Amino acid sequence: MSNALEPISRLMATLAQRAADRPAGSYTTRLLDGGPEKIGGKVLEEARELIEAAGESGDEGRNHFIYEAGDLIYHTLVMLAWRGVDLSEVAQELAKREGVSGLVEKANRPAKDPESEKHSGHES
To answer: What percentage of the chain exceeds 70 in pLDDT?
Structure first.
């Protein structure tokens, strides 16, 4: 599996460099300059496309799903780069959750303030 993750590691290094240098004419630079609103919009768009592709059948559907997963992962990695978060930090977070039931983990999260969610426009 480690060989399968090498392209993602290389991409993260490229994204970190783009975040530092902001080369003109780069799609990644345009996303980074747009901040969380622009990047987040693409993450949401790609998530919707991935969900749609998940329902497609056959080899063509599988290939489309893989393609859309790549897009979603790319845009998520751009958001990490914008935020200055290294993928290893996300891996550490996942390692902390390893062996913990998702239901238990969710139950142990601090309660959200319903008033702040109303004002932010986000509700669970």
So the answer is: 87
Residue 75 sits in which domain range? 2-87
| Spatial separation of the C-alpha atoms in residues 66 and 103, rounded to whole Å | 28
Domain with 56 in it: what CATH number?
Answer: 1.10.287.1080
31 φψ region: left (φ > 0), alpha (ψ -120 to 50), beta (else) = alpha
CA dihedral 83, 84, 90, 93 (to 10 degrees): -90
15 in Cβ contact with 78 (< 8 Å): yes
State mean pLDDT over 73-77.
98
Which amino acid would we find at residue 103?
L
